[in-house]
Write a structure and sequence with these properties.
The chain is an alpha/beta fold and about 550 residues long. It has helices at about 1-25, 70-80, 95-105, 130-135, 135-150, 160-165, 165-175, 215, 240-250, 300-310, 325-335, 355-360, 415-420, 435-450, 455-470, 490-495, 500-515, 530-535, and strands at about 40-45, 55, 65, 85-90, 110-115, 180, 195-200, 205, 230-235, 275-280, 280-290, 315-320, 340-345, 370, 385-390, 400-405, 405-410, 425-430, 450, 475, 485, 540. It is about 35% helix and about 20% strand. It has a 9-stranded mixed β-sheet, sandwiched between helices. It has a 7-stranded mixed β-sheet with strand order 1-9-8-7-4-5-6, with helices on both faces. It has a two-stranded antiparallel ribbon with strand order 2-3. A hairpin with a 3-residue loop joins strand 7 and strand 8 (about 205).
Length: about 550
């Protein structure tokens, strides 16, 4: 009897140990890795860095956490300034950065800031009436701001608290000049989506991060979050800094409150990729956008595609959004040549109908029973496409590709037509194994915690579409003789239409990039096309 009990206990212990062992070997490794060597001129940082020594205390939530403190890296660069500081970033909400800029301004050093117009308003200026009208997403952002700023937790925001925590008020109080993409006289063209700082005309800080708590440390009201997964580069190069300063000056014009000579979006002159020697490394840089009337190969997406074509062994992608069909077609050709491809896309975009992740998995989702134009699911799908399982509230905000573990594509530029044709963006291509190793480690970290393949929910949605829509077809570029598809036609084809000259043809192409035309009357969104023009176009266009 005793032997039987001992045997049962022994078996139970063995089973428990075996289960524990299986859990350990199947769980993502929490072992801290050795730090990687940095390039002397190109430093790489990640706010989710798992290397030993990459730890800091979140200055706002007072949480000990792993990762590189991206805000402190930017503050240190600003602190080092002796001549000038230029900042171009979509959103700036971090008070430590704002205060560092104020100190430089007070020391007599010129400071200039450019923001996206959507984010060029202090949260503290929002009235109760305006708050009610905000979207749910913006209401959530306001709640974050309120909790972040209410230092004494009394449910009210005092002037002192606002002056301490509202970054835009901190800049305003110090008289730091700030302008946005309405300075060209428009309502804002596309997004001013840059994320860069230029210090003293010789140092550039750039990458994928916005200067917000969620872009660096984590959501203020969620102590579990670690911030959106972002990368940051600190590059010492006068030549590269000169190019960023030229981009900045185009947008700045003659400054705040003067002539509307700022140039944003397509008002900027198009520039082909430029090569810069940074120490022993060649860096290629290109700024977006480009006119849709220009050859795609000359665009930032074209640069990305051309770089991907250089792969001989592997391509790894970590992307917030991926919706550029031509890049996917290039990836398929690379796969057919034997290149191993892995792709991670943020879960909020990975399985939308326009996501190229679906193509790579060999499936498609329709939008109102219609596929995207030129949609092309891979005939030989891959299973190495998925989404990282991040803490709820954090997103995969990277925009990087890694080719053969030696060439890095990174910057602010999402792999989309909107980034290519509408937004102010940066793409960098860096050919260096030391730099690439940092991105390789970050990709492997994300890949280890990712769910790969087609989720059950997407499979179910595809089945429902088959039942509801029958055979789903693509909107093709092929139309009936004499009929021009305004959503896919070239400029030359559009100019064959009555009353459509080169200027209107270009405007139609620009307009459809951000929002496709859905009816004949919808063409009246284009300035210069009115009821009389619509009558002339009736029966001659499709959409």
């Amino acid at each position: 009897m005793l032997q039987s009990k001992v045997a049962k206990i022994t078996i139970a212990i063995v089973v428990a140990l075996l289960i524990a062992f299986l859990i350990i070997i199947s769980a993502p490794s929490s072992t801290r890795l050795s730090p990687l060597p940095q390039h002397p001129n190109i430093q790489v940082y990640f706010n989710h860095n798992q290397a030993q020594g990459a730890d800091y205390t979140d200055p706002y939530r007072e949480i000990e956490r792993p990762g590189d403190d991206l805000e402190t890296i930017i503050v240190a660069a600003i602190d080092s300034a002796k001549v000038s500081v230029d900042v171009a970033v979509q959103e700036l909400r971090l008070p430590k950065i704002a205060k560092a800029l104020v100190e430089k301004k007070q020391a007599g050093i010129p400071v200039r800031v450019i923001l996206e117009n959507t984010y060029n308003r202090p949260w503290s200026s929002i009235t109760p009436r305006e708050l009610i009208q905000l979207t749910e997403r913006d209401k959530g952002k306001y709640r974050e701001f309120f909790a972040f700023t209410d230092l004494n937790k009394d449910g009210q925001l005092s002037t002192e608290e606002i002056n301490q925590r509202d970054a835009l008020i901190i800049l305003k109080n110090a008289g730091i000049p700030v302008l946005d993409d309405t300075a060209d006289g428009s309502k804002g063209s596309g997004l001013m989506h840059h994320k860069f700082v230029v210090v003293d005309g010789q140092r550039v800080i750039t990458g994928s991060m916005n200067m917000t708590p969620s872009g660096t440390h984590g959501d203020f009201l969620n102590s579990e979050t670690l911030g959106n997964a972002n990368n940051l580069l600190e590059i010492e190069s006068q030549d590269l800094a000169r190019l960023f300063t030229e981009e900045f000056n185009l947008m700045w014009g003659d400054g705040v409150g003067r002539e509307t000579d700022s140039k944003f979006g397509l008002q900027k002159p198009h520039r082909l990729p430029q090569l810069v020697q940074v120490g022993d490394t060649v860096v290629k840089i290109q700024f977006s956008p480009i006119s849709p009337t220009q050859p795609w190969e000359n665009s930032s997406n074209g640069l990305i595609g051309e770089t991907l074509k250089s792969a001989t062994e592997s391509i790894d992608l970590a992307l917030f959004v991926f919706s550029e069909q031509r890049i996917t077609n290039i990836l398929e050709e690379e796969k057919q040549q034997g290149v191993e491809i892995r792709a991670l896309i943020d879960s909020s975009f990975a399985f939308r109908y326009y996501s190229e992740g679906l193509d790579m998995l060999g499936v498609a989702l329709g939008n109102k029973c219609t596929y995207q134009p030129d949609n092309r699911p891979w005939k030989t799908p891959i299973k190495t496409v998925g989404t990282p399982r991040l803490i709820q509230g954090d997103v995969l905000h990277h925009k990087f590709g890694l080719i053969d573990n030696r060439t890095v594509i990174t910057g602010s530029h999402n792999w989309s037509a909107t980034a290519n044709y509408n937004n102010d963006e940066t793409v960098l291509v860096i050919d260096n194994t030391t730099v690439a190793r940092h991105y390789q480690r970050e990709f492997e970290r994300l890949y280890e915690i990712s769910a790969l393949g087609i989720p059950v929910s997407v499979q179910q949605k595809i089945e429902r579409e088959k039942k509801q829509c029958g055979v789903i077809t693509s909107k093709s570029t092929q139309v009936s003789p004499g009929i021009v598809n305004v959503n896919t036609a070239t400029q030359a084809q559009l100019e064959t239409l009555p009353g459509i000259g080169p200027k209107l043809a270009q405007d139609i192409i620009k307009m459809r990039v951000s929002q496709r035309f859905t009816s004949l009357e919808d063409l009246q969104r284009v300035s210069g096309i009115g009821p009389v023009s619509i009558q002339k176009l009736e029966g001659k266009v499709s959409w």
